[in-house]
Amino acid sequence: MTSLRAELAKLADGLLSDSVPGAPETDFTISPEKVDDAAAVLRFAAKSGLRVLFWGGGTHQGMGNAVAADVVLTTHRMSRVIDWQVEDLTIVVEPGLTVADLEAQLQQRGQTAVLPETAPGATVGGVVAAGLSGWRRLRYGPTRDRVLEVVLATGDGRVVRGGGRLVKNVTGYDLPRLVVGSLGALGLIGAVCLKLWPLAAAQGMVEVADPRVALSNAYRPLAVIETEVKAVVYLAGTSEEIAAQAERLGGRLISGHRWPDPPTGRWELSLRVPAGQVPRFVDRIGSHGWAYQAAHGVGEVRFAVEDEGSGELGAMRREAEAVGGALVVMRAPADTDLDPWGVVPESTELQRAVKAAFDPLSIANPGILPGGI
Amino acid sequence: MLSGLSRGWLRPRGRKEDGRLSRASGSATRPMSLESDLIATLGPERVHSHPLELLVYDKDAGVTRGKAIAAVLPETTQEVAACVRLARKYQAPVVARGAGTGLAGGAVPAEPALLVVLTRLNDILEIDAEARTAWVGAGVLNLDLSRATEHLGLHYAPDPSSQAACTIGGNVATNAGGPHCLAEGTTVVHILGMEMVTATGDVVMIGSKAPDPSGLDLRGVVVGSEGTLGIVTKILVKLTENPPAIRTMLVTFDSIQAAAAAVSGTIAAGIVPAALEVMDQPMMIAVEGFIHGDLPVDAAAVLLAELVGLEAGVAAEADVVERIAIEAGATSVKVAADEAERALLWKARKSAFGAVAQAAPDYYLHDTVVPRTKLVDVMTQIYAIGESHGLEMLNVFHAGDGNLHPLVAYDAREPGSEQRVRAAAEEMVRASVAAGGSLTGEHGIGLEKRDLMGLVFDPVDLDAQARLREAFDADGLLNPGKVLPTGARCYDYDLGELPGGGAQ
Ligand SMILES: Cc1cc2nc3c(=O)[nH]c(=O)nc-3n(C[C@H](O)[C@H](O)[C@H](O)COP(=O)(O)OP(=O)(O)OC[C@H]3O[C@@H](n4cnc5c(N)ncnc54)[C@H](O)[C@@H]3O)c2cc1C
Fold it and tell me: Which of A167, A176, A320, B69 could make an S-S bridge to A325, C-beta 3.0–4.6 Å?
């Protein structure tokens, strides 16, 4: 390790940093300032057989299989806005920029990247890598539909660019969409170009009795969220438009948006099922008295569990898998028996080959994906 | 089945040492052949190999031609898989083909290949009105799906102008766009999953009705892969709710630049209409001669803008679009009074290429994309390029996306005309790229733009794409010679050579 440390220290001159709170203890913590530095570190790691764990805001490190790492690579020094084309509604940012900072900047020009509304500390790179979408995806689609270009430092230290800074483009394979949800298995996201949306003139919420009925009565709401407390339809548009929507929904219009905080507990889970199945699973989760947030029309239910003893999570997972869905662990106690992913996807062998195309020695977040990819 | 062909290609062939297919043709015949195996699998009616039968398959709607060694018409996924396995056995390349309306030569074999035609996988398998999804066979025609879901108040949003003829499988393979993809997104946004036959002849399911598949999400790279990563046999699509209110406007301008400025201005003002299409005067004259729709043929350019949503919002946005258009120099604004008028405007838009096809002996339809802020600039250059080559050019394009479609009408019998057309094409691509744009917005790379990929990607980027392709198809069986330029995979990346020394 000493000679490795010396070599790495030379390579990462000035980039070695103290370990990050919350991150696993490793021999090296490196905080590159640009993607080329990150690639050089990855190249060195690949040559030296060191495994690398990527660290953004650390808010979603509970996802996926545990990664045994020799090096932690953090993105907090890569947090610049590289190019914001306000009039073309695109922005290029580095991965370490927090979602909150990005959205605050965008808001000043009446724009949004539609990234998760409640993710304190989460970084753009982390959210893209984890494939997380905000509540407003019901109207604006998931995060994968707004990553237009990506620069990736691959697991063997190449710097690869895919896509383009254009809202429409079919030039070459869609690497940006491949990177979304890849959880660092292909390499470190060095920059992304995001498609932006204009913020609507007016925003409002209506509390409803039956979210399912509301979903079919409202015209393209931003979100229909049900929690153990209430169900709320989120609206945006001109003030006349949202007033008309509220009337159609038969409820009182509350102005502005307040998003529920994600449920927290010892186990934090994301149930992903066909949208029509949400009510059934909500009933089941509710019957245990667990805190939940269900995205109607989308098919995701986030919920938290304090005490899992009964095997109910495993049973629910099997039911979700039977309808083509999944029960994904977002956070769990270290000693849990619950697999982070559940059944492996049918395309696992193809996925393994794709991983190898970017990270042939499997050093980038090794094993984090289903099937130990 | 007709016989009497030279069938050197039908022999099983050896593999070169590097693991790639050896495509040297020989002349010896063997009793066992790809053709006889295909016939044994599909029956003689669904295997075409006579040159006359193959004539219809030697091109798509673009200008490039190629040769198929046979075309097969499977009816099930299992038959598609069987055809791929047979092609693999004889080491014949495989090219998937939908309706053949592609414009980049994607379905045209770059080297003699087995064409797997998907048009008979044309069943709409399931429509789930509550989940707003449908499972369709790859050969279902785009428009047929929207027709089949109309009574449910739903439609399939991507609407290429060729929607009455092209297949959804072809749309997936090209990531097709259309006028209404401005707000709704191109095909990829509407594809939730697919069943795919891989290069090894296996069947794999990717994605599902549930959001966010676990593991690497392969859907995005399969969409737009032009048949190079697999043959898509069934597709799970998202259906879109029909809007309660629609406002369709036709705005006239006395220059194309003014129309383009109105488009850039609308986007910059934070409005994302359902569609923003621009047509120039030469195109309008051609269309008018075709549909006799009383179009404003005296205007230099028109903007077709459509706003959808709730009445209150549509009215407010229409006012803004109108104001911006007038500021940009609009000479008139007309709102379609009823569904019949609206339908006529869209008929004009969508029959544009058909109108030219009827009038001109030959045409070459371009497809590039630029940032929306550069529309005025690039359109000016495009006209100048056409003029400098003495070409007759007509324009109708998805302006709101920055997706340009200059169309050159010419007569291929005129000596040198094709060279001029191609030279102009490359200049237009270069002008778009120089403005921060790219090679293609929706028609794909295919054969047509393969050798221009280096204009937008470095060797390292192209090499990464080639490696990705190899992950799906190690032997280069599927649609070889498309999308990536030859030699893309030659970027030599050797960890041992890198600074720091000490290879592992
Ligand atoms: C008049 C006209 C107007 C057009 N307008 C538009 C437009 O507005 N927007 C637009 O995007 N395009 C447009 N196009 C182009 C064309 O219609 C689209 O590219 C369409 O998606 C092609 O579908 P197809 O079924 O004809 O596919 P084909 O042309 O048969 O094939 C296209 C590509 O897809 C591959 N492929 C086909 N099926 C499969 C499958 N099942 N699995 C794997 N690969 C497959 C082929 O190998 C090929 O690479 C237009 C074309 C014409 C002639």
Answer: A320
